[in-house]
Amino acid sequence: MTTTDIPAKPARAKSPAPPRQQRGRIRREGAAWVFLSPWVLGAVVLTLLPMAVSLYLSFTDYDLFNAPRWVGLRNYVQMFTEDPRYWRSVGATLMYVVIAVPLQLALALAVALALKSMKRGKSFYRSAFYAPSLLGASMSIALVWRAVFNDGGTVDNLLSDIGIHTGGWVNKPGWALLAVALLTVWQFGAPMVIFLAGLQQIPVELYEAASVDGASRKRQFISITLPMLSPVLFFNLVLQTIQAFQVFTPAFAVSGGKGGPADSTLFYTLYLYDRGFVASHMGYASAMAWVLLLAIGAVTAVLFRTSRSWVFYANEGER
């Protein structure tokens, strides 16, 4: 008798779970879905469904009053080839991002370093510096900012006292965008708090060893602080860049909703608002919104790609 003649041993059937265990698992899963249902419902109704509708509208001619009329890619073709104001809005937005984000992060890091070395009053100053992040996005603060930088405002009077006559920043094409960028830089509280938390996680032993070796404070900052803080810096960079591309309220308040002077503050979202709700070209505005989404996604992907060369993690040698 060969081994091939031996009948195969039948597979052992998996015994079903006891009914009591099955009922308990079903109850637990049901309870989880009950608690998740508000988030799922909100995500579907307030995010996914509006996104699907806007994607459809981007291929239509829709004026908010009549039924949408399918036009295919005409909105996108017009956007890229026939609308010079669109490209001016792109240029103004890119200029704003390049100016505002580095200045904001540099100021946030500088203040975080100063707070880390403080012995007394750290909690008070941390709250005081964080307050503008809570107030700066409001229309009231933006209007106050416009008055401060307007002709005859506080900044204009202070500069005139030292012999610099600007005539008001918000009325000059070369200065209006800088005034809006400074409002964003003033709201450095959120990245500052994140930087401060990251600085407190750096081991003190590293600085002590560097001091014993004779490293100066500048060398310690370059060789210890920046590498150890690079994940936090990368997080703030991505977050603030995404927010900068979506800036709206300061530009609307400073320019009166027109993007002036000479379209110098015509940011992308402000022009999108103008096309959608002022000119009633909602199909065109929807196409602009999807291009902005893809652009932010591309910029974020580039930042993640380049981060491999300058972001360092403590356990990367173990991976």
From TrEMBL:
Q: Which residues form the ABC transmembrane type-1 domain?
A: 90-303
State the UniProt keywords alphabetically: Cell membrane, Membrane, Transmembrane, Transmembrane helix, Transport
**InterPro entries in the cross-refs:** ABC_transporter_permease, MetI-like, MetI-like_sf
Q: Where in the cell is it found?
A: Cell membrane
Annotated protein name in UniProt: Sugar ABC transporter permease
The UniProt entry's coiled-coil ranges are: none
Annotated region described as Disordered, given as residue ranges: 1-25
Give me the segments passing through the membrane.
30-59, 94-115, 127-148, 175-199, 220-239, 282-304
PANTHER family recorded: ABC TRANSPORTER PERMEASE PROTEIN (PTHR30193), ABC TRANSPORTER PERMEASE PROTEIN YESP-RELATED (PTHR30193:SF1)
Read off the PROSITE patterns from this record: ABC_TM1
Family (UniProt): Belongs to the binding-protein-dependent transport system permease family.
The record's section on Gene3D superfamilies has: MetI-like
Q: How does it sit in the membrane?
A: Multi-pass membrane protein
- CDD domains hit by this protein: TM_PBP2
